[in-house]
Specification:
Pfam families: Response_reg, Trans_reg_C. The chain folds into two domains: 3-124, Response regulator (Rossmann fold, 3-Layer(aba) Sandwich), CATH 3.40.50; 131-224, Orthogonal Bundle (Arc Repressor Mutant, subunit A). The chain has eight helices and twelve strands. The chain has helices spanning 11-23, 34-41, 60-69, 85-93, 106-123, 156-166, 175-183, 191-206; strands at 3-7, 27-31, 48-52, 76-80, 98-101, 131-133, 136-139, 144-147, 150-151, 173-174, 214-217, 221-224.
């Protein structure tokens, strides 16, 4: 089930989009202003964001700009009442993955959103093989992780990181290689971002008693050891 954040200050559009996406089998969180949208999106816990450009408090452009500056690359579909080529170019240059002009047909919004999610799935390896290492199960199709049957809740980026490591058990993976596998480009983020996300994953694994399987190879990268 895809988790989608909808940010739009028009109650009618916000409600209609949220209801429609829920009917399409998606989990939806909807907010009505830029600051709330930014705080929600910064958690990295969404698979996609539907983001209006004209918002109270903080425009959609600024929300998108701050997301990308923070290293959050959740796919973003911009909604705008402006159909000018320069407006679309500005949004795409800031890091948007799609641009839809109001008024729009809901079926077109869903089609764009599903296309974004498919690209996201491919980039994060969700079409890869399920990995079982003793009591650790990493399933890229369901995008789920469990330890002795206890579910480990991970964000899409955290899941991609763990899956990349678990797919190569007992093998040290360099930080640069993780940047390529998980972020898509060695230049897309810094090595420090990898360290931060490894910390996130390790803490969540610790919560179910599995933190020991993810180890640091000092000066090189990380390894998931077979239990």
């Amino acid at each position: 089930m895809a988790r989608v954040l909808v940010v739009d200050d028009e109650p009618g559009i916000r409600t209609a989009v949220a209801r429609g996406l829920t009917a399409e089998g998606m989990e939806v969180v909807a907010v009505g202003d830029g600051h709330s949208g930014l705080q929600a999106a910064l958690t990295g816990s969404f698979d996609a964001v539907v983001l209006d450009i004209i918002l109270p408090g903080l425009s959609g452009y600024r929300v998108l700009e701050q997301l990308r500056a923070a290293g959050v690359d959740t796919p973003v579909l911009l909604l705008s009442a402006k159909d000018g080529e320069f407006d679309q170019a500005d949004g795409l240059d800031l890091g948007a993955d799609g641009y839809l002009v109001k008024p729009f047909a809901f079926v077109v919004l869903v089609a764009q959103l599903r296309a974004m999610l498919r690209r996201r799935d491919a980039a994060l390896g969700r079409t890869g093989q399920r990995v079982r290492l003793g009591p650790l199960l990493v399933d890229p199709v369901a995008r789920s992780v469990s330890w002795h049957g206890d579910v480990v809740e991970l964000s899409p980026r955290e899941f991609a990181l763990l899956h990349a490591l678990a797919s190569r058990p007992d093998t040290a993976v360099a930080k640069d290689e993780l940047l390529r596998l998980v972020w898509g480009d060695e230049q897309a983020a810094s090595r420090n971002v990898v360290e931060v996300y490894v910390g996130y994953v390790r803490r969540k694994l610790d919560g179910v008693g599995a933190g020991h399987v993810l180890k640091t190879v000092r000066g090189y990268g990380y390894i998931v050891e077979s239990p």
